[in-house]
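Record type: ASSEMBLY
Status: queued
Input:
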Amino acid sequence: MSSTERAGVSRWLWLGPLLATMLFPFAWMLVVSLAPVSGGSLARALRGPWDLGHYRALFETAAINRYLVNSAVVALAVVALNVATAALAGWVLGRRRVPGERWWTLGIVATLMLPKQVLMIPLYLVLARLRLLDSYAALILPFAADAFSIFLVRQFVAALPPELEEAARVDGASDWLTFRRVVLPLLRPALAVVAIQSFLTNWNSFLFPLVFIDSDRLRTLPVGLALLSQTEHSVDWGFLMAGSTVASLPVLAVFVASQRHILSGLLAGAEK
Amino acid sequence: MAHREPPPPGTTNATAWLFLSPWIATFALFGLYPFAFSLWASFTDYSPVRAGGSRFVGLENYGRALVDPAFWSALGNTAVFVVGTIPFTTALALGLAVAVQPAFRGRTLFRVGFFMPSVVSVVVLSLIFKGLYATDGAINGLLAALGLPQPAWLNDPRTALPAIMVMDVWAASGYYMIILLAGLEAIPRELYDAARIEGASAWACFTRITLPLLRPTLLFVLVVNTVRSLQIFAEVFVMTRGGPLRSTNTVVYYLYEQAFYRFDLGYASAVAYLLFVVTLGLAFVQMRTLRTTPEAAR
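Status: finished
Output:
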């Protein structure tokens, strides 16, 4: 046994129990969601039997299906817009194509420091004036361009060699053609990070959908779950945990499938 | 100056502006404009449910906040939250980062596992912990088995806020672990090799090499976490609704109540600006006091 292997084993001995403790709440969620009668008690839930009754009840609740669809529509629309605005603006800023590029970039970094919650009431007032409250648009348009995403693409572009774009330009390609045919394929890794992070953030978004949406039929899943937990399903732990599991599955799937991207994307973001 | 630089040959500035315009439009309409509009609203008695226009009231809204005991108790709870969680979150994140940095079999499993709470909705995390903290929930079940007293957790004004704080440390540390990991990876390995040759202990390496060189990353983590913690809301909304006896009422929850239960939007705008100033001020003070120290020490 080499010394690194021995170090690995001893690490497992103390990190293993720590990881198990930290993941225990998720295990509780899953077990309670599968036990038909538990009252939220883990001991009773573990005794079984297990079935999918709570999930059946969940999807028979018409509202939940609507919440799921709303969450998906909003998250995917925001992701698409985010990727598009970040690619366009990131390329222009990364290639210093506009006068005062430094100031634009500084402006983007400054908005990163602005806590979004402080904008909750201002945004609410503006959306009210534009008559956009209580619509998909209220959950999509304000989040169509994200400062962090643009900054990430800008940094990525700045590190790309410009020769390919110059060659395309010499061949007489228009800016749009150069962007479509040359730049976009090169940007793919950065745009993947943007898409993943944007999906994770927006799927989980809570405060803005809570405040901007009034009608039940437009609610997203996190808001719907939170409100159900305070009304007719307040101590229905099996139902709530089934809903929580369903709400977590898309983000966990995206995360596990792309953990390399996410972890490296965060690493890149932290090094600014 | 940037505006004197000629554009690269063959580029048209018009297209560049066109490509920037979606971001500029979004930022102007949903960033700058609301920011300015609500600054105006904070000096009026604006309310969408009242007929007639809004009246200019000067600094009245700000004055009202400063004499409202509920505002001060919300600010106090938020301060307790910030001061009581950040040292633990940072220490745990740093410990985890150091533990999962070196190469060993299964390292990715630990990195992914510890990061997991950061990708799940705060509503889901809060619902889980509401269940765990229930008077007959899993935590009290464990305490009963050990023969220990079982607090009422979220139903007791003395334990409700600490209970939410414990959850936040659990939920947030994985995220900051990843950021600190980036800082650790940037420290040159040769420094540690040289220290080992000189006979330095692991602890000496940590305090003399890791901590000083990690200072910028730690500062970043501290500022980001402070800004985030000052905005704590979803946990409170889902778990306690600010209760019991307002013991978990935070500034953003107070803001939410004023704006959307009482529709006092002028007043709520003023509170939002106060929170903004506090946030900016704290971040500035942290950067000032912590950034200068390593240079002075060297």
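Annotation: Chain B has twelve helices and no strands.
Annotation: Chain B touches chain A through 100 residues (CB under 8 Å).
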